[in-house]
Amino acid sequence: MCQFLRRIYGSNKTALAYYTHVIEHVLSIGSFDFAQIIHAQLIKVGFNRITFLGNRCLQLYFKFGAVSDALKVFDDISTKNTISWNICLSGLFKFGYFQRACSLFDKMPVRDVVSYNSMISGFASCGLIDYAFGIFLEMQKLGVRPSGFTFSILTSFVCCGRHGKQIHGRMIRSGVNLSNLVLGNSLIDMYGKLGLLHYALGVFMTMEEVDIVSWNSLITSCCKSGHEELALKQFYLMRSAGYLPDEFTISTAIAACTKLGDLDKGNQMFAFSLKVAFLSNSIVLSAIIDLFSKCNRLEDSVQLFEDVEQLDSVLCNSMISGYARHGLWEDSLRTFLLTFREGLRPTDFTLNNVLSSTSLLSTELGSQVHSLLVKLGFESEAIVATSLVDMYTKIGLIDCAMKIFFQMDVRDLISWNTLILGLARNGRYFEALGTFKELIRRGSPPDRITLAGVLSACRYGGFVDEGMSIFSSMEEEYGVEPCDEHYACIVDLLCQAGKLKEAIDTAEAMPSQPSSFVWEPILIAAATIGDLNLIERVAERMMTSEPQSSLPYLLLVKAYEMRGRWEGMIRVMKAMKQRGLKNITGCSWIGIKNSIFAFEADQLEYPSGQEIYVILRLLSWEVGEKDNILLHND
């Protein structure tokens, strides 16, 4: 190291150039010790106050995550330029120093487009989408012109079609070069995520130049919008246009076959992957494992997985979820343990699958997995902690869920939503409302799921006033437009309160056609009070909105039967039979050790069911014999 420094000092370049070259070398080799030595040398010769070198040191320390050291460097720079402020701002956001980053932004003497881009991406990374859009509007009011990168950031987190179209319009008005491949691809991806496939196709068709990323974005958009056949058609068009698919193209096409349940086309993709030597790619192979698993060919998935020489987290995730999908929870957990034996660090997705599996088995097993996660140091990670909260709420240990939630260092909106929904699910309605109020008090804007959770708590708790107040202020106060799930909660709440007319008025005032979930509580309420006209009217609307639901037919049959209207009853039963609808059967299950016993329609669904019934009869006989003996003795 010393020889390297002497060699640089021995050259004819200026000292500034020397240190610039050294810092570039440190950045390339990634040595934190070397970075500290260079910084010490700069302080010794007084170069640490030079703006250019100070900025390079800032980059060095932020690269290694040494935030406190970086802030000392920042303070030492005598004349800070905009680059200095931007490097520090970006670094603080990157390592989670949200409040300090906002404070630094407020102190900036001059802000350019890079400064605003950092703030927008920083707010978005924390889930504060509305604040990110607010920063975007502020920069425009102050005359800072957005760059292409600004718009690419915005398109990455848009969650509303209206906002997406507005951003697209602003791009056009701002004079941004829309022929830019990156922006075009970002727009295709954005519209695909929003389910606006025709807009994504429109952007693709108007692009002057497309690349493999453009095709991948379009094919993915088709899949996300539920148009898997169109996705495969685009795949074939891409190949005919002379573009060579990459691993993302192939995996997306295989995913389309999986969603269609088309094993024949999936096998064709499998053969093509084999032909172009893509089976060595874990993304493609995991997609094939998922395909076979979802098409009831689990044995083929297992065979592929066992033949892999080098396992990774992606492959293990696919196999874990495959086992879980087929109810093989023990195999799912065994594969999870395999990840550790292979020296792999499980991802958040892995842990989510495992925790979902344990929630279906037993409380004891869930606690064991929790202990393992603590031992491995995963409990402090926000996504894992949220999954633990979800697991404990599903198995009814709501107090354990709350304890984990309140121990979390960072609580994002997903974790708040998980707890609110869990509290509502477990009958802790007052606490669900209290948690919602605490979220609002902290200044975090709720989303669609938050409001669905708190309205669900009001629904089951019978809190009519609170529910109506939250529902009526959703759009104005929180910027969330009510959808079917919110209307279903409020309609059911009104029905339970005996306000059937208000419930019907609410359903009929919906801006879109109400789904069967909205009409269902009204139908049940009508059946309860015996209003046949209303039952017929609502049942007819439910049959139209959801033809596969048997509930309206069953309630109509019951209503006609009670009134002796046999012709109407037979007509409805015949229509139900023609549509292939069956009676709704309830199901209960219980987990004992590592086995799940399901009870459905008075029948034990278990391979050894007959043997269990024999034992039960023997036990009953034995108890009866003992009772007879006692009676005779008496």
Automatic annotation (TrEMBL):
Superkingdom? Eukaryota
Q: Where are the PPR repeats?
A: 112-146, 211-245, 312-346, 412-446
The protein's UniProt keywords, in alphabetical order, are: Repeat
Q: Which GO BP terms, alphabetically?
A: RNA modification
What is a single molecular function from GO for this protein? RNA binding
The record's section on InterPro entries has: E_motif (IPR046848), PPR_At4g14850-like_plant (IPR046960), PPR_rpt (IPR002885), TPR-like_helical_dom_sf (IPR011990)
Recorded family membership:
Belongs to the PPR family. PCMP-H subfamily.
Name of the featured protein: Pentatricopeptide repeat-containing protein
Q: Which organism is it from?
A: Rubroshorea leprosula
